[in-house]
## 1
Amino acid sequence: MGGSAVLAGVLAWRLGRDGEQLALLWWTPLVPLGLVLGIVDARRHLLPRRLIIPATLALVLTGSVAALLTGRTEDLVRALLGLAAAFALFFLLWFAWPSGLGYGDVRLSASLGFLLGWFGWAELVIGLYTGFVLMAVVGLAGALTVRGRGSLRRHHAFGPHLLAGAWLALFLTPWLATLIG
């Protein structure tokens, strides 16, 4: 529980600093849920749909109401397009290689697509891409530390990497924008 409080505090600092207090409505409740999903997926290689589907529906509903009440319809449209794009991409990856990606990851991508899409296309792309990079780094590190070819075929949970990638994108994208721009 302490980890959720620390992460929620860091999140409030980041979003409050950039005038995104509205996004705290749906990001803050998802901090403990994201931690639970990451831990469950890491231990059991399972992202329970009974947690992800209601969370995604609540996320879209809350975000839609907040956006309509505050006139931020452009952000809402981008978030909904982000949801659709992330879900479509992950669905195609799952369809092409079902043993390499679980359907729970496909469901999770919809939520992350909405959350990251709200902030912008750069956050969405960086967030999803960072999840893949983190997965590759962990897999490579595991292959280098464990001898034998069997370690290369070992399945790793992807959910924790996706969640960490989304979290990092929220913090890295503004920094990268100042670095590039």
## 2
Amino acid sequence: MAFVVIYDANALFGNTQRDLLIRLAQSGLVQAKWTHAILDEVQRNLAANLPDIAPAKLERLRALMIDAVPDCIVEEYEPIIEGLKLPDPDDRHVLAAAIKANAQMIVTSNLRDFPAETLATWGVEAKSPDDFVLDQIDFDGRVVWACVQQIADSRTQPPQTVYDVLDALERAGLVEAVTALRS
């Protein structure tokens, strides 16, 4: 069984980073999971930051994400939420999903909202997307490189190289992971 991770909404926000995280799951390195509430948050944030994007396009993105990763949706985690304490109560649903899915990790850009001592109670750790991808590179860098190559190969309008994808990932905040991939 693959390592189980919950991708928080903020980790799924940027296009290239989201693409890489999903491809890592498709590669079998990890079993990625999220909830409909997490996808709702992704859609709300994309709509707010990109007001010209059509709602149908956001719905299509959601469907593609669900189809891309088998067994990705965590359900029936809601009863756990009330018993959890986090600095931001609005993040309790993410930890509840991690507990329900027996996830070992939450990939999030909001590390301060997921204190290590609180998560340790549940056997869960929070990592930034950069640290998470860096761990995957340490585990099997060839697979991560192949995922980056697949992204470049899929981008034809306009065409992109692996180095264009790495630049986009670096701009998204995956600085250490991109440094490792470039070396």
## 3
Amino acid sequence: MKAVIQRVAKASVTIEGEIVASINNGLLILLGIVDEDTQEDIIWLSNKVTNLRVFGDENDVMNRSIIDVNGNAIVVSQFTLHASTKKGNRPSYIKAAKPEVAIPLYKSFVNQLEKDLNKIVQTGQFGADMKVELLNDGPITIIIDTKNRE
């Protein structure tokens, strides 16, 4: 699993002109899934996301997690995170999991994140043409790959 995590002052997802998700002060998480991903990856990534200290404390030092600031989250499926650009100029998405594998893992990640945050997590719609708007706060953008746990 790959995740691009952005600290946002606000973010929203619009599908066919309708806002389906909207938050203030939290994290926008773009999530890419491959066939090899497991429940272990889901648990590890959710724990990492919920405990990342990327929010400012009283001294404006990044010492607080999304849990500490009672922040919100939106998770958006993003198969393009697994694009291969090694050959030519047209990205290949062969590594990205097909919907029959990716959808259950995506839903499981959202459920795990809700459990770890103890609140509802908003989402986009898997496979939809989504318009994602965000005001990146910082900017803070972090990339995490569960296959490369550094």
## 4
Amino acid sequence: MGEDASFDVALAKKYGARILLVDPTPRAVSHYEAMKSRFGRSAEIEFVEGGTQPVEAYDLDGISASDLVLEPTALWTENTTLKFFQPENPEHVSHSIVNFQNNYRKDTAAIEVEAITLQTLLHRHGLEGQPIALLKLDIEGAEVEVLEQLAEQGVFPRQICVEFDELNRPGDKAFERVDRADAALRSAGYQCVYGNGGTDYLYLKR
């Protein structure tokens, strides 16, 4: 989510979908609260270029708090409290569990956040056992461990949109980690049906 929920709002409006937004970043939480104050209202201005959208640009007519729900935690492979490392550029919003932006170090500036598994997330929101139509992951490197765990545990969303953020900083470790996630998905029966040649990929379970 960060400070751009345009995809999530569009999905909720077009398909009447219930969307769980999972992001503990303080600026993301503030952005959601500003959005929430406008639920039920139409857009007043156009979207802007870049990663931060003014909340007045969202068409929230017909959207309620039950349609777009914020879970202010980090998605991870266990229920715990962990360090959420700040980005190199303080103007950027995205924090990271694996801290690939800082060469995977464990001693850079961080905040502490609650982290939960996907299964805990579903249980918390009464969605256990229900099919997941779409899982969208832009979680700054943590997608590798999360996807491996989903494949191991047999949690299979119909579609997985993933940004392999580590490919923004290509290197042997980044490629090895992304290859692991890709192999886990393919072994679980997923097919990669779209890739932009960079960081963004769509997997579909046939």
